[in-house]
Structures are given as structure tokens and as C-alpha cells.
Amino acid sequence: MDSGADVSLLREDLAKQITREFDKEDRTFVGITKHILKVTGKLTLPVEIRGRKYHETFTISPSIEEDAIIGWSLIEKMNRLEGLSKIEIKESHDENFKKNEEIQKILKPFSEIFEEPTRTPLPEHSESDLKIELTEELPTYSPKLRPYTQKERECIKEKTDELLKQGRIRRSSSKFLCAPLIVPKKGTDKYRMVVNYKPLNAITKRDKYPIPNFEEIINWLNGARVFSTLDLKDAYHLLRIREGDEYKTAFRTPFGSFEYTVMPFGLTNAPANFQRHINGILHPYNGIFVIIYLDDILIYSSSIEEHRSHVRKVLQKLRQANLYLNAEKCQFFQNRVKFLGHIFSDAGMEVDKERIQAITNWPQPNTLRRLRSFLGFVNYSRRFMPNLSRLARPLYDLTKKNVKFKWTDRHQQAFIQVKQTLENVSILSHYKPGRETLMETDASDYGIGAILSQKQDDEKFHPIAFHSASFTDQQKIWSTWEKEAYAIITSLRKWYHFLADTDKPFKILTDHKNLTSMFTNIRTDTRPKINRWAAELDSYNFEIQYRPGRKNEPADALSRRDDLKTQVINRVLVTDGITNIFDYLRKEYDRHPEFKVILDGINDSSNFLVRNGLIINELGQVVIPKVPQLIQVICNKFHDQPTSGGHRGKISTTNRIREKFYWKGMTVDIQNYVKNCNICQKYKTRNHKQYGYLQPLPIAEKPFSHISMDFITGLPKSQDNDAILTIVDRFTKMAWFIPCNTSVTMDDLIKIFNDRFIGNYGYPTDIVSDRGSVFTSEKWRHFAHSHHINLSLSSGYHPQTNGQTERVNHILENYLRCYINKQSDNWVSYLPQAQLCYNSAQHSATKIAPYTAAFGRPAITNDWDIKMIEETGITLTQDHIYTAEQIHERINHKNKEYAEYYNRKRSRAPVFKQHDLVLVKKGKVGFFHQQHKLDSTYAGPFRVEERVGDHNYTLSFPENIRRRYPSSFHVSELEPFNDDLTYNNFKQTIQIDGILDVDDFKNPYLYLCLYNKRLTNEKFQTTAWIPQDIVHNLAADKLNDFTQRASASQEPQ
Q: In its keyword annotation, does this UniProt entry include Metal-binding (predicted)?
């Protein structure tokens, strides 16, 4: 729905599927985005929306991508726009299609064959009984049953009871027993039971009765316009097993052994036997207006009147044979039906999109068996893919004998190319005798390609079929003309049923000139195979015409494939045909009056001269008009290009351009271009001081109320511990060193915290920690909340937030290095001494030992402390004890000193608003890490979601990144991202025309998008890196398409 469209639009091919009869027009519309819409006609259709019907006149156009666009003319009729979720366009190519009662009138006399039979009598034996003839005597065979789940056992029990009641199976004492397979029903939680007859099939003689050839089926549908499809119900069970052969079908279950009395699924000859049976029933109509493929039946006719008669005749035959139909799977009087995995219509045949989706979502094969499975599935669409043999050649080579399965980039590229090609398959028209027919062929060094086309009602050639094949090793050494001749011969053999008896000569187009006379002027030394080919051509009525290779592109593309090239996409510039800047510039002079004046009066001016139509000033600079797209091209040349640009800075780039060009305001334009360069911003380091002055944490008012916690990890094992939990009181500076493991769980942490801290000092008011998984877990949050503890988490990748604990960790690590043994496995035994040593030493901030600040007396650390008191009689007096106010004052004073020192190397932080775009500095670890020295310095840009305090920001990450990495960053880790496009621009209806690249394939966030951009009064296309959420909102279909095409590829550069 588009409230900005004045009229409603309908895509032309869909209109032709609905009806061939509509009012023809030939004109064009200009859309609001300056797109040209070609209009070919008008058609009035009923539109149903939530039970209400409207009639709308649709303008028909081949230029729109959507099936239909509901414009304002219809929206206005609806009075309100909200709540309209689904619009269905009713087909109306014939009045009879809208009159279901007429169809019901035809079907009503045959209603019993659509109903579930009240009883299902066992069919009588007949000549259609399935005969099971073996190549050897039936051996003794009884496979061991695997354990079944409760639901699987219930399925087996229910199915065997049902079949026993119907007489379709009976108890068996056969020595040859197969095992049942329990298969989940697609889209449900139910199961169905089938029997694995693979052991029996291995020794069964094959029935050679033919199953219909698909190429014949296509040929029969020539001229068909109306279709009905029928699906037979339980058809196999209507045939008996030949008397005496029942024991061969025996199978075992947890509830006993059984054998079939009717033909089951899974037997190797069951399809051929059933095809013979159903062909006999519908023999008078088979191939005339009926196609039978096992239990699927297609009725086709050239008109509604014919179809009524055909449907009645077929249903009459089925009723006489006691066959039943699945009503929900049958379709009647359709102009477009799905049959045998393809879509058939009066326009031709096309591939089923559901199957294409299955192939495009196929994961990379990692075994030969899975590769063969993929190729088998792709082969289903072969007739729609003109260059499959070339595209998939590396994959087919991998399936050859004596070739080791090793997946390389070459195979990956072919795998992706095959899937991408499937997304754009063609509709194949029906072959119609008497129409002008064209066969185009070509051969490359390793294969042939051909297209068979016919001129249709629109006087244009449309493809009937494609053909491609690879050369064998022997054929690869043939001469060029032999390969080209073979391309013609093998294509004629492929389409013999179309081309063998044409009254009117068909044309063969080739880009090899010698072929036009090769078959008529046979030399005496011509190879025997050429003589055979020439004789074979005598049975065809054709003309060979030469067409140069540059004009033979369709067939040429089938026989060749360019190697895929990997390249880094830095910046894509859409130049709209500026291939020669000076030719473009001369044309621009004519569009700008001020330059035309200079050109006309050049002889009267001493400031300019003209050379080859270019205006040059007295400094030797080419003067150019201020055309945004022209300026973009020049800046790209002298900034982005490796030899002439090198992504130098503003001054260097300006000087380079100024040597050759001049335009008004060029300095500002060039500097803005460099400033907004995505590559420079992400890959270049910054020379300014780090952002953000020191912001000390609030000073605690009393002991043990505000603490900080951290882990020291990566330690060698000592008494089964490999980590240390450090806790520091932010008021007294007292520390606790607790041994633990890096695998500590949330329950372990809570127990340690209860035992070692809370049990002695009570619950704190605030805990500062980093954003480790333990400290951000839901259970830890719940523990803190239930005890009224505030959790203060540090910014992502900014350990200075918890600087106090970091410094204590550093002191502890140095202490342990001095005392532990050479094996470094006894550090746990030194933690109590280290804790006492630290807590009894004077702290630089409080000028008093943490122990003394906490307990009002000094700690006894050795025997000298006791002797000192005994010998001197001097004890610690009240004068040596600081009050809480004094400690608070000293910490505050120390914080100011440290901030003054720290801020010498810092600069004022920029202030980011919500939705601003920022870059994140890459570190050595985490999501934003530099993989190597030449990797980009910054990641992003990312959108600011929220400002937290003065110096911290929460960024908008996709859920898959947010779950694993911090989304909150200190301002020192961020840089502003400069671009013409801001979030507010995006919120206006920007049109994204395509997606070219992704920033990080494993964690997609940014996409390089092609979009329309406006500078001054002109609009042109350019590119920008746009966040995922915005791309999803503006171009979800293009995002899905890009993701599918790249899903199996390597990570884009």
C-alpha cells in the first residue's frame, strides 16, 4: 500500500495471468522518485479486504517490483488505513471462474468420490495384482528393532490395528521380515509408519513399465489454458498383492509380525504397477487431455467449455474404478496450477518457488554424500538454468571417482553462484508448432550451451528451453569448429521432439562463421563423425545464420563463466556515465549560463583561456561548475584512489586537487569529503588527547558500605584454584584476597561472598565491578536486589572505572611473584600473609593503614610489634586515629590531586545525543578487537541509544551482539562518525536501491547501501554504511535477498 501513489498499479505479468483481455494503453508515468513507469493498460478488478468488497481500476505496468500497489484512490474509499493486513485480488479472466456454483454443479454428481468411504472392502484379485518376482530364493532375515519412543509405539500400534481391521495386513510367520520406519509428518507433531523394504527390493526383478517422461508432459500441454489437478486417495491400497506373494512383504513390530495383502508403499515395482493400472483406467484420454503421473492427474483444456466435458469424463472413469480423491488437494478450473513440482499456466512453465527456497537455504555440503544430495536437488531445476553445467562444474568434478573430497574457495564460489542463479530463473513458454523458432548455440573450451526460443504474441522471442553440457576429456581436445558443430548436433538431439518435423524452417544462430557452409561443403578428408553429423542434419528443416560473438551473448553466457574476483569495497561511487570527466565537463558548461558567458566572451577577458573546450584560469587550473556529482568524482579520484589519493588528510588532498582544478568553495567541499570518508574514519588513528576528564567515584561515608570486586585470572593451579577474587572497601581501602576458580558459578560467588564478607561485615550498599558474565548474570542481580545492594558496572573495555581494585590487583600480583616457588603452585598459601601485609601498610590516600582505619588500632604483623610495646610502653593513642570525617577529607584531597595529574593527558569529551552515529575503538580482546596490525582501528558506526552519566553511552547493538558483549562504553572509547546522512535523514523516506556489502558477516550490523542523495538542487546515487535496524525498516526485502545470497559465502572483506 502506498498512500503517495495517486493510482493503483498491477504488474503486467500478473495481469496477463488473470486475463488477456484488458484495455491497452501506451504511455509513461514519472514517479515522485523520478523513476519512469511504463504503462501498458488498465484493468478493473474486485478487491476484498476483511469481507468488504471494492472495485478498483488498476494501471498495468511492467516496471514495478511488487505484484500490486494499492494507491490513494482506493485507500480513500476505505476511510481508514490502519488494520489492513492482507489484500486478495480475485482472478477474473472469465466469468465462469467467479461462479463457484457452476463448478459445484459439475462436481455434485460425483460427490461420493470426494467423501471418506463408509467402509473399505478389500479389493478383489485382478490382473493388476502386484507380482513380486525374486532374483534369488528369499533368505532368512529379521532385523533387530531399535527402541521406540512412546509416541512412536502409539503410532505403530494405531496403524497396525487400523490396517488389520481393514484386512490390508494380516499376521505373518514369514522368515523374511523388514522393519518399520517412523517418519514425522511435515508441519505436525504426528508420525506416519512406512516399511523399509530396501532388503526386499535388492533381490526383486525390476518391472520395466515406463513412467511418463517429463519432456513429453511439457509437449502435451501446448495450447492449454485451463487446468484441474486430482490427487488419488490411498490409491496403492486398491491393488492386491498376487496370491502367494504376501509373505514376502512381512515386517516386524513390537506387537508382532505382519504381511500386506494390498500393495504398500516402498516396494520397488509398486510405482510401475500402479502406473500401468491407472493408465488402463484412463487410457482413452491419456495424452489427449489427461496427464497421469502415478497418483497425480492433470486435466488440461484449451477452453472452459472443453474443460467441463473433460472433467466429467475423467471423474466418470474414476468412479467406475472405485477410486477416491483427496478433496482438499484437488484444484478445478484453474489458469495456473502446481503439478510435479512445477507451475504450469497458459504462459508456460516456471519453477516452484518453494523448492527454489529450499535450495537457496541449503547449507554448505561437508561430505560427498551431502554434495550429491544438493546436486540432485538442483538438477530438478536444470531446465530453467541455462548455464548449470558450467556453474556447477567444480562441484560435479568433486563427485568423480578417485577424487578426494576437499572443499576449496573454488567450490564455495560455484556453490554460491548456483544458488544465486536459481533466484532469477526464467519462465519457459510452451512450444507451439508453426511459430517462428530460433535455436542459439555456442561452445567454449569446456562445454556447450543452447537456447530454444519462439516468437510469442508480443512479437518477441521467449525461451522454450535451455540446454548446457560439459565436454568429456576427449571432447576438450577437439578443434573449435568441431566443438561448435557438436553444440548444434547435441541441441538438436535434445529438442528432437520439437524440431524434427517442422513445416517452416527454424533458424540456428552460431558465432562460428565456418558452420554456415560446413555441412553442405564436405571435404574429402573430413572426419567420419562430421559426415555422420551432416547426415543426421538432413532430417531437419533449418537455416544456419552467422551472428558475431558480441551479439551472441545469451548462448555465449551458457558456455562460459568468468572467474569470480574478490575485492575490498572501500567506497562505491555511482557516476551515472561519467566515464570521461572532460567530456562530461564540456556538456556541463552548456548547462550553466555563467560559464557560457565566459566561453562566449573569452577574447575580451585576460583571466581565462580555452583549450579543447575547457576553461583554464591564470593559475593553470581547469575551472568547473559546482556540480555535486562532478565534485564527488574529482574528490574520489584524488582521495580514494591508491596512486593519486591514498586516503591522505584534508590539506594534502586539497593541495592535490588545487593543482589541477578550481571551483567556488572547493576547500570546504574537499574537507567535508575527507571528513566524511568512511575508510579514513575507521582505519586511521587519532592524534588528539583521549576524551573524558577523570570522574572519581563518590566517596563512601562509612566502612564496608561501598566496595569493589574483581577477579585475577590466568594463574597456575594451586590447591585446585586458578583465580583470586579481590574485594576492596572504598572507604578504609581494606582488601580481601580469596582463592577460587575461573569456572566459578553464580552460586559459588554468592557462597564465597556470604562466608568471607557478609558474615563478618554485613551487607554493603553498593558494589562496583566489571561486566564479566558472573557480575551481569540474572541470579547475581536478583541476589543484590533482594538485599538492597546497588550494582555499579564499569563501562565496556574501560577498566579505569574500577581503577581502585585494578591497582590492588597489581600490588597483589607483584607480592606473589616475590615469594612463590619456581613451580608457581603454592601461591594460595601466601594469600593470608599478602592480605595482612597490604591492610597493615599506610595507604597513600588516607595516610593510615586500612586495618587501622577499620578497627581503630594497628594490626600485629610480627613479634617485634609485641616486643615494641613491652620494651617502650608506647601504645597507639586516640591522637593517632583519624575520624571518619578526616578520612573522607583525605580521600577527597587525593582524588583532586590524581584528577589534576590524570587530566593533563585528557581533553574535553564530546557530547553525543540520542541517534548520533559513533565509532568504537578496537582493542586486543572482545568483539571490537584488532585481528592484525593493519586491521581497522575503529568499528562501526553505531547509533547512540542512551547517555548514562556524563561520560558513558549505551549503543544500539543487534540482539545477537548485545547478548555477548557490553553495549555501554566510556567516551574515551568512542569517536564521532561524520557523514552527510544522520538518523533524522534516514527517518525521512530515503530509498535504498541495493545492498553491496556487510561490515561483519558473522555479526552483521552495518550494510553498504546504494541510495539516492541530494546535494544543492541535484539528486544522484551514492553509498553509505547504514545500521542494520534502519536497513531492515527501509528495505527488508533487499536485506533478506542479500543475506540469502551471502549466507554460504566467506566473510566479506
A: yes
